[in-house]
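Subject: BTB/POZ domain-containing protein NPY4-like structure
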Amino acid sequence: MKFMKLGSNPDTFQGDGNEVSIVASELVSDITVRIGTAKFYLHKFPLLSKCARFQKLIPTTGDENIDIHIHDIPGGAKAFEICAKFCYGMIVTLNAYNVIAARCAAEYLEMNETVDKGNLIYKIDVFLSSSIFRSWKDSIIVLGTTKAHLPWAEDLKLVSHCIDSVASKASIDVSKVEWSYTYNRKKLPTENGNDSPWNGVKQQQLVPKDWWIEDLTDLDIDAYKQVITAIKAKGMVAKDVIGEAIKAYTYKKLPSLSKVSMIHGDAKVRAMLVTITCLLPSEKGSVSCSFLLKLLKATNLLKCGEMCRKELMKRIARQLEEASVSDLLIPTVDGDTTVYDIDLILSIVEEFVRQDCKNAQKHNGGEVNDHVSAPSASMITVAKIVDGYLAEVAKDPNIPVYKFFSLAETVSGNSRPVHDGLYCAIDMYLKEHPGLGKSDKKRLCALMDCKKLSPDACAHAVQNERLPLRIVVQVLYHEQTRASAAATIRADSIGIGSYESSRSGATTNTEDEWDGVMAVEDLSLSKTTKLDKCDTAGTDAEKNHGGNKAANGRVKGGVTPKKALRKMMSSKGQAGERSSSDSSDSAILPSQEHPKRTPARSTTKSAAA
């Protein structure tokens, strides 16, 4: 820390412990200066020789003791004592902690060059410009002390000088940083001393681009706002570094932000959150989506205002694909029966969809048809996040179906290449809301596209008692169609391979052809295994007796939707939801629509031979 000593005479100020200071001298004190509860028994001449203000207050005639009351001197009694000692020529030490107070008090007492050359104001200004403002840490300390001396520090441009000093140093090229700074983050290998010499010469230590972040966290929010604004105005620091600085400052001042459910505060905390939100760089990705969501949680709980809330929601929507499900679980405020604020997330997702559509229009140079254009990668990612969020909030028995449905349909169906996540969310909702009506069940399940369910999801769905019968029939049909189509393609490919082999003049190996046909049969068998799981009716004796017939049936074409439906109707015909009202809505598929298995060409040619 930089410091400056003024004067050469020994300090003879003596205090009695009751805020009374007396100058030890042979001369009797002839002036008493009262500042608040403090009293100073001084002499007129030293004060008149340096302070123009005392020249106005002390009469030129008369030898009586003068009693002067000063109530508004900046810095109070401590700052006045520094000025008084300077008048006596006593040793005074100025540093970053007291220099602003002394400078403001000297201005109040009018200790300028017109009264005496080399007066206190001049000496302090030289000390500030030549020493304090050249030091990184001293500049920060001095800036922190200016708040206690407003508006004097502001009027004397001390605040602006401090801010410019700090912002200029933070914006300088890292190769020119030669002063000490606080840095407790994960350091580069060269900073940890692990770098090896190159060609026998030790490489220069690298200064991280965010070297200045931690030192600024000691500032109050008003000073911090001014510094960050100045750094932004200079335009030399990357936006992500500024975002990281704001994040570090927020966690330093509001450590409970990481556990938002425990955060509490008054108007001061609310004002800080609003200021932090306003300071965030406007560029996408300058701060993480997780941090933005934590801010939103805090502002939502502390009711920081609608403008702050909307600004955060807009920023979150721009990078929603970076969010996690746990980040989106924002608790509701008092008075709501639900656990999580699903309306808030719905608004964010709607804003994301609007922004994504605008970006698509700009990219394509015109209007975009949602039914034709492929979804963006971010839209697909957000759809997965929404499905995961729905699966979590579905566990809340107080979530109404219309809110669940509204959020689910906000993301279009073609944004979900696979509907497994949506299926899991719907199934969880049906499980936690057993009293849901038939029409609401059908409406929810209509959000799913059975063609986009994976084999595992299909296997689960066909055995799911909570789903309407019509949905189960659709799943069975599409799964059987997929299995049969795969078997047909495989059989055709084997046939083509055998045909090409015969044309090459090679000897036909009937065992290899038989193995190829068996591979097709095995494929058909494996594809229909999950569908067979839904058939739990039947005894062990029937299974043992008809094992060969069942295998032959799978080879020829697998389990048809009609067969699976008959088994389900016989075993589940008494279920409440899968009664006559549901089954009447389910279209029984005609037999001519069943995919037929095409025999392998190689088998046909062998038979012909």
